[in-house]
Amino acid sequence: MPTMTLLQAISDALRYEMRRDERVFLLGEDIAEFGGAFKVTKGFVEEFGKQRVINTPISEAAIIGGAIGAALNGLIPVAEMQFMDFITNGFNQLVNVAATTAYRWGLPVPIVVRGPVGGGMSAGPFHSRSAEAWFAHTPGLKVVFPAFPADAKGLLIAAIRDPNPVLFFEHKGLYRKIREDVPEGEHVVPLGTARIVRPGADLSIIAYGRMVHIALEVAARLEDEGASVEVVDIRTLVPFDEATVFDSVKRTNRVVITHEATLTAGFGAEIAARIADKAFEYLDAPIRRVAAFDAPVPMAPPLEQAMLPSAEKLLDTCRQVLEY
Amino acid sequence: MADVVATAEIPEIVPTSLLNDQQRVALLRWMLHARIFDEVTIRLYRQGKMFGSVFAQIGHEAISVGSAAVLQPEDAIFPMHRDLGAHFVRGVPLRTIALNHLARQGSMMRGTDGTGHYADPQRKLYGNISHLGAMIPVAVGYALAAQLKGEPIVVLNYIGEGGAQTGEFHEGLNFAAVRKAPFVLIIENNQYAYSTPTTEEYACKKLSDRAIGYGIPGETIDGTDVERVYEATFYAVERARNGEGPSLIEAICMRMRGHAEHDNASYVPRELLEYWKKRDPLLRYQRFLIDNGILSEAEIQQMRREIEAETVRVLDDVLQLPFPPAEEAFKNVFL
Ligand SMILES: Cc1ncc(C[n+]2csc(CCOP(=O)(O)OP(=O)(O)O)c2C)c(N)n1
Ligand SMILES: [Mg+2]
């Protein structure tokens, strides 16, 4: 199996699907000859041509709306947002058109909108946002947020084959940082399946995206303190794999939920509510959340570090829950 | 140090009767400030000493300076990301610009954001956000309020030719036209939006042709001739101030560097850069000022040396300052 970064695994999934199915095409800003701001589509225009790798004007509503229309007419578009922050400019198309089409017309909208998200790079309030909760709150949209290269490939292939609109979030801090063996060729990870990335007995950390890696770091440190910590990577927010999460909580009886997005009305609140609703009697401690402080993502490093969740904050909360 | 005068053939500046020689010297000074700020920050970037991105405005100086110089202090300005020249024209101190750019302690944005994104309400300057086009409706709203309050001010706003393809460009400009808002929008057409050439951005011949669709005047001008920019802006501002509504100006120039300094812009044909190098807005104006006896080559060299020394000193100084303390992250989410 070849070793790939998260970024290479995403490219691999796109290339694999474009070779397999000629209905699949790409559109986005600077994605053709330039290969995209992060080079996810480097070399694509050479292989697939300008008709299937479309450079667009700076018009996110047209990119997303255009993807929806092409999907209605039988194609399978994958749209890139140069930064997911700019998805706001196509918000109407997503939440009002894409998200309601199956429900109203009974027609599929097999689009994927993907792109880089997340902070930690001093990129300021407009290039650092984690916007997944907006879309998880919109019935009709699927929301995927991988943490590992192999999962990213398998989930992206599943997303492209899904008949529904799927938002695919890629943490740019993981793009070139995380490497692992990735299956060649066909590799599908069904949407709506969580994965236990580290088994444990005393506490469950429920995470996604970059926080999975921080959770693993915290779990390793807690092991030195004698605690056995399980880490569950939910991988997709919508659909949400309740069974794997509840099963973990029922075994460990303690839970900390973490995400990089801001706390209030974040997806962690949803997970906490479901656990409280359906697994309350298994809990030995209150459900706790570790998320970003409710503010825009600031630029200067000390502010950004203070605002974002960190290993220290997660460690501290986990210790409190273990001692409860 | 860069040559004061370009040696290759340079198109002649067409002088406007609206400017006197003292104003011309001021225009040059502001253009030099903008150019030198870029030169110094590019150097710092290469040395790994910068913080954040460097969006050079080399090639754009005549647009931001020539247009902002038309405004009165009560007028408002909403610049884009290659308009530091306008910040200098508005009188923002170099140190303030550097503090905000580098997100250091003492910056108006308290480290929450950087580059030219800050607002200086006293100088009626409101920075852009990264989302292109977002500030167009906002600038229009500012103009609308002035109209409602009966204040005779004008709002000047800028957008790249790439940002002109957003929905907000259309909604903002149409709204301004319908309300006859005292608003002037300048499109800085520098041939590229990141790696994308204009042929993949729009299909019309001139972006100013859109004006007729909004029922407002529009013109396309040479954005490397600071006198021409001044003149075109002057008449658009006068029109807006007289209650005759908004105008659209497309100023043509060339982005002489990468999108930002991380980008080597290898996708830009070398001949295109060669063509525009001869139309360098700063060198053209320097030649004009010398040929017309307004400044000598030695005086320009002297000006350049002074501004460069000041820019290096201020940037070095600000780079020594700490970032704001972490607590700032928790303040001002609400007032
Ligand atoms: C709405 C939106 N989409 C995408 C981007 C990413 N982006 C930043 S600058 C840029 C190119 C801008 O081109 P243009 O407006 O022509 O200005 P220039 O940089 O050429 O001066 C792009 C695509 C953005 N900032 N905002
Ligand atoms: Mg441009």
Model description:
The complex is a heterodimer of chains A (324) and B (335). Chain A has 324 residues and is α/β, with parallel strands linked by helices. Chain A is globular and about 60 Å long. A seven-stranded mixed sheet of chain A has the order 3-2-4-5-7-6-12, with helices on both faces. Chain A has a five-stranded mixed sheet with strand order 9-11-10-13-14, sandwiched between helices. Chain A folds into two domains: 3-181, Rossmann fold; 195-323, Rossmann fold (3-Layer(aba) Sandwich). Chain A contains eleven helices and 14 strands. Chain B is of the alpha/beta class and 335 residues long. Chain B has helices spanning 21-46, 61-68, 84-89, 94-101, 135-149, 167-179, 210-214, 226-241, 270-277, 281-291, 297-320; strands at residues 76-78, 119-120, 125-126, 155-160, 183-189, 192-193, 196-197, 218-222, 247-252. In chain B, the strands form three sheets. Chain B has a five-stranded parallel sheet, with helices on both faces. In chain B, strands 2-3 form a two-stranded antiparallel ribbon. In chain B, a hairpin with a 4-residue loop joins β2 and β3 (125-126). In chain B, α1 crosses α11 and α5 (135-149) runs parallel beside α6 (167-179). Thiamine diphosphate sits between chains B (82, 130-132, 160-163, 166, 188, 190, 192-194, 255, 259) and A (29, 58, 60, 82, 86, 89).
Low-confidence stretches of chain B: 1-7
Q: How many structural domains of chain A? A: 2
Distance between the termini of chain B: 47 Å
Radius of gyration of chain A: 19 Å
Return the average pLDDT of chain B rounded to an integer. 96
Structural class of chain A: alpha/beta
User: Using only CA atoms, what is the Rg of chain B?
Assistant: 19 Å
Give me the side-by-side strand order of the main sheet of chain A: 3-2-4-5-7-6-12
Strand content of chain A is 15-25%
Question: What is the count of β-strands of chain B?
Answer: 9
Ligands, ions, cofactors = thiamine diphosphate, magnesium ion
